[in-house]
Design brief:
By secondary structure, this protein is mainly alpha-helical. It has helices spanning 2-29, 66-76, 88-99, 110-119, 126-142, 145-155, 165-173, 182-191, 206-221; strands at 33-36, 41-46, 48-51. The N and C termini lie far apart (43 Å).
């Protein structure tokens, strides 16, 4: 068992080395990321051109409830302010599982989720995951943590064809984000791991409800 794990670990670090080498190569050849605010577009060059959706900011981060950001970080990425776009350990475990024949799991930071939201699909393949890593690193190099959070909350998908916190708050609660209660914030954040699984607006799914209760307890303890 130990020998098998050692082989898988070597396999993972070899592929990570290839990925990082490719990233450095693209950095050398091409302008890595252009944030054109006047055109409201994010463009990434590196091997091929990725064109993001329009990056309109409906709600600046300063206008959003602090509890919304706290709940997001608590559930999705507690080390957000410490990492550089990805968790090496989590990615290693995910790739080891994949090499063992399991389905490739998420293990994505908020920055990786933003890269996927803006540039990629939700397809769970090794190629897409490596693209996600590359793009997440570029975002971290060229945007502040606050800009990443602001873009994320204004573009992430909340289910029912609702992208961005403004549309989600209006759809689920007929409210602007600033007036959301702690319970409503917990509900919205609890949707993020699987936004398409809810068939009803109230989303009475046991796992989602468990996430919401956990988030509410956390927010009320602050």
């Amino acid at each position: 068992m130990a020998s098998r794990f050692l082989k898988l670990s070597r396999w993972f670090f070899l592929h990570m080395l290839v990925c990082l080498s490719a990233w450095q190569f693209f950095q050398f050849l091409n302008p890595p990321l252009l944030l054109k605010k006047e055109e409201k577009r994010l463009l990434v060059y590196g091997g091929e051109l990725y064109l993001a959706k329009e990056v309109n900011i409906e709600y600046p981060l300063a206008e959003l409830p602090t509890a919304l950001v706290q709940a997001l970080l608590f559930q999705e990425d507690q080390a957000f302010y410490e990492h550089r776009g990805y968790h090496l350990r989590e990615m290693g475990l995910a790739l080891v599982d994949f090499a063992s024949g399991s389905r490739l799991r998420g293990a994505s930071t908020i920055t990786q989720q933003l890269a996927r939201t803006l540039f990629l699909s939700r397809e769970k393949t090794l190629q897409r995951k490596l693209q996600e890593l590359y793009l997440a690193r570029l975002l971290e190099l060229h945007l502040s943590k606050q800009e990443i959070l602001e873009l994320y909350l204004n573009h992430v998908y909340w289910g029912k064809n609702q992208s961005g916190i403004g549309r989600a708050a209006r759809y689920y609660f007929a409210s602007p984000p600033a007036r959301l209660s702690l319970s409503q914030i917990a509900f919205l954040i609890s949707l993020l791991p699987h936004p398409d699984q809810c068939k009803q607006k109230t989303c009475p799914a046991p796992l989602r409800e468990k996430r919401q209760r956990r988030l509410e307890r956390y927010l009320r303890s602050l």
